Amino acid sequence: EDQVTQSPEALRLQEGESSSLNCSYTVSGLRGLFWYRQDPGKGPEFLFTLYSAGEEKEKERLKATLTKKESFLHITAPKPEDSATYLCAVQASGGSYIPTFGRGTSLIVHP
Amino acid sequence: DSGVTQTPKHLITATGQRVTLRCSPRSGDLSVYWYQQSLDQGLQFLIQYYNGEERAKGNILERFSAQQFPDLHSELNLSSLELGDSALYFCASSPSGEPNTGELFFGEGSRLTVL
C-alpha cells in the first residue's frame, strides 16, 4: 500500500526565515510526486509534479526536490501570504493511478 | 478559481439522514474524483467517474454512492449518516481518465456536519 508521511505537521516561521517541508513516501514504483497548496476553506491547488530523483521545480519562493525516498519543499524568505497547508501526493506506476495524499504541513508565516 | 463548482458549500443534518452533494467539473474535463477530508484522516479518495462510467474506487462506504450524468456533472449521495461522516467533501476534475501530470482541479468543497 502506498504511504505518504509529511513532516512537520505544523510549522511557524517569521517572515524571511527560510525552511523546508518534508514528504517521505513508500510506493511500488513512482510515477509522479505532486505538491499542492491548500488555503483555509478552499480546495487544494496544484503546485508541482516531480517524476524522477534529482528533479527540481521552482515557483516564486518555492522549490521542490525529489530523491528516491522523499521530497522536500524549500521555502525561501517566506511571506505571510505563503501561509497555507502544503500537501504532498504520490502516484504509483503500477496498479492504481489515483494520487495518495499525505496529511499535510500547516505553515504559518508571521510578519 | 479552479473552474470546478460544488454545492452546497455547507450542510448541517442529523444522523440517519441522506444528503446529495453536487459537482460540476471544469469545462472540457471528463473525469470527476470525490475525496473526503477530515482532521484525523487527511484527504481520502472515494471514487472516480470518467465520461459517465465508474473508473476507480477507493475507500467509499456502502452507504455512499455516486454517479456522473451525461452533462458530466456528478453527485455524491450519502445515506444513513453517522457523526463520523462529518467532513469536507471535495470534488476534483481532470481532462482524461488518468491524472497523468498529477494535476487535479479541486472545487472549494462541501462541508458536511452531522449532528
Topology (SSEs and partners):
The complex is a heterodimer of chains A (111) and B (115).
Chain A: E1 3-7, E2 10-14, E3 19-26, E4 30-38, E5 45-50, E6 56-59, E7 62-66, E8 70-75, E9 84-92, E10 100-101, E11 105-110
Parallel strand pairs in A: 2-11
Antiparallel strand pairs in A: 1-3, 3-8, 4-5, 4-9, 6-7, 7-8, 9-10, 9-11
Chain B: E1 5-7, E2 10-13, E3 19-24, E4 31-38, E5 42-50, E6 53-57, E7 64-68, E8 74-78, E9 87-94, E10 105-106, E11 110-114
Parallel strand pairs in B: 2-11
Antiparallel strand pairs in B: 1-3, 3-8, 4-5, 4-9, 5-6, 7-8, 9-10, 9-11
Protein architecture, described:
The model of chain A has no long low-confidence stretch (mean pLDDT 94). Chain A has no helices and eleven strands. In chain A, the strands form two sheets. In chain A, strands 2, 4, 5, 9, 10 and 11 form a six-stranded mixed sheet that branches. A five-stranded antiparallel sheet of chain A has the order 1-3-8-7-6, with no helix packed on it. Chain A is mostly beta strands and 111 residues long. Chain A starts with a strand and ends with a strand. In chain A, 38% of the residues are buried. Helix content of chain A is 0%, strand content 59%. With 115 residues, chain B is an all-beta fold. Chain B is built from no helices and eleven strands. In chain B, the strands form two sheets. In chain B, strands 2, 4, 5, 6, 9, 10 and 11 form a seven-stranded mixed sheet that branches. A four-stranded antiparallel sheet of chain B has the order 1-3-8-7, with no helix packed on it. In chain B, strand 5 and strand 6 form a beta hairpin. Chain B is globular and about 35 Å long. The model of chain B has no long low-confidence stretch (mean pLDDT 93). The A-B interface holds A 32-34, 41-46, 49, 87, 89, 91, 96-104 and B 2, 4, 33, 35, 42-45, 48, 56, 58, 90, 92, 98-99, 101-109.
